[in-house]
Design goal:
- This protein is of the alpha/beta class.
- It folds into two domains: about 120 residues, no CATH class; about 130 residues, Rossmann fold, CATH 3.40.50.
- About 45% of the residues lie in helices and about 15% in strands.
- It is built from twelve helices and eight strands.
- The strands form three sheets. The protein has a four-stranded parallel β-sheet. Strands 1-2 form a two-stranded antiparallel sheet. The chain has a two-stranded parallel ribbon with strand order 3-8.
- Helix 1 runs parallel beside helix 4, helix 4 packs across helix 11 and helix 5 crosses helix 6.
- The radius of gyration is 25 Å and the shape is elongated.
Length: about 300
């Protein structure tokens, strides 16, 4: 009798355990309403709307409902910069920085010819697109939007006295790519002399970026007398996916599970940077691009993995 009682008790305990697990799994299921609320503010990415079905399909790659819930919670921290936000930010940023520009638009001119606008990446990349958008939004003369190779030539035109040289970028993650770009620029002694002798203000305007990267850059750039960085939407540690400062997860245990999940799948996509370039753990997407600082599980297409936002 005792043996039968033990067997019966074990059966009941197993049944309760299975039932509990099933209930938890059902509770973890991400509802359509949650997906709708998440995606409604995202806008379009490269012209296409990222809808609920796309997110559901992306989440399914992680396996059961428990893992999908963790993936969904990660997405709740996503900063999606749509076209309207970008235009408004570029206009607002210029309203802030132009107070320090000594030169002014000449009477009768409908566009500003005292400002040179360039970008921190190649002409075909997003920075060049936003540089043109910045010029259009702030009525900068279209011929004053130049590639980096033509900056010195543009600054040397006396009739268009330059008060500011402005570089537009979408995102400042670690600041390493900007440091590399500026180091090449700073090697041009004639250009630096032109900038300093004519009291030209040099600005980097980024739509989004980390305050820590900005501080690091400001300390490194010493050759330019008047060098400034303006970030439209300033990010801090709370904007990193698995930081203890964010509120994406209910507990440290859940945060750790989500970290492990993102690392496990991210390592298959970007072996050296499974949580984004230089372990940035960023959750940033723009309406036409996704920086490599963002978690690879969101943008990388490899080994049959279907990303939510393809970079290419």
């Amino acid at each position: 009798m005792f043996g039968l009682f033990q067997i019966g008790s074990l059966f009941i305990l197993c049944f309760i355990s299975i039932l509990r697990e099933r209930l938890i799994n059902e509770e973890d299921f991400v509802k359509s309403k949650e997906l709708s609320e998440l995606t409604k503010s995202w806008g379009t990415y490269k012209g296409d709307k990222v809808n609920e079905d796309s997110v559901r399909s992306w989440m399914s790659q992680f396996g059961d409902n428990s893992n999908q819930r963790l993936a969904f919670n990660i997405l709740k921290g996503l900063k999606f910069y749509n076209y309207s936000f970008i235009r408004e930010s570029l206009e607002a940023s210029f309203n802030i920085i132009q107070k320090g520009i000594k030169s002014q638009i000449k009477r009768g001119d409908k566009t500003r010819k005292d400002i040179i606008v360039s970008c921190l990446d190649e002409p075909a990349k997003s920075g060049a697109h936003y540089a043109k958008l910045f010029a259009d939004e702030n009525k900068v003369f279209h011929k004053n939007v130049v590639i980096k190779e033509n900056i010195l030539t543009s600054l040397s035109v006396d009739k268009n006295k330059t008060g500011a040289l402005i570089f537009i970028d979408d995102f400042i993650g670690t600041g390493k790519s900007i440091t590399t770009f500026l180091s090449e620029l700073l090697e041009d002694e004639i250009l630096i002399k032109n900038i300093n002798d004519n009291n030209i203000i040099v600005y980097i305007i980024a739509i989004s970026g980390y305050a820590s990267a900005k501080d690091s850059l400001l300390k490194k750039i010493k050759k330019i007398n008047n060098f400034n960085i303006h970030i439209c939407d300033v990010l801090d540690e709370s904007n990193r996916a698995f930081s203890e400062d964010n509120y994406l997860f209910k507990s440290s245990g859940e945060r750790l599970k989500a970290n492990d999940l993102a690392f496990k799948f991210g390592e298959r996509l970007e072996k050296n940077h499974p949580l984004g370039y230089s372990n940035s753990q960023s959750l940033v997407v723009f309406e036409r691009s996704c920086p490599n600082n963002t978690l690879p599980i969101i943008w990388k297409e490899k080994n049959k993995w279907v990303p939510l936002f393809r970079r290419i």
